[in-house]
Fold:
Amino acid sequence: MSSSLSAAEIEERIEKDSGPLNEKVIVKRSTAGTRTVYHNADDPCYNVDATGYRAGPERITRKEAQERGLAPCRGCIIGREIPETKDNELYERAKHFDPDVHDSLADVDLGGTD
Structure:
């Protein structure tokens, strides 16, 4: 299987996944062999019904996913990490952005009024 993640990156992510090994996770179906991550079955970071695949996602145990060399998704399983050394203002603006209230990220007030 081709992967955009190195073996070291996959191992690093697996170490951060504290979920039970017998718990079900989901893997997007792919005929091209491009599956590299597994997702939280209860709250995946993508719409499983709108994936465009006829059979939907594959449901397997976390242990089986790890044995296949898949990494846990940073979005819905281990969480995105923002380095402490970065200026997090842009992330905070994006997190508080509401298209019904703001025209752009510059309109987001990080002081708590918007």
About this structure: The beta strands are 24-27, 37-40, 58-61, 71-72. The chain is about 20% helix and 10% strand.
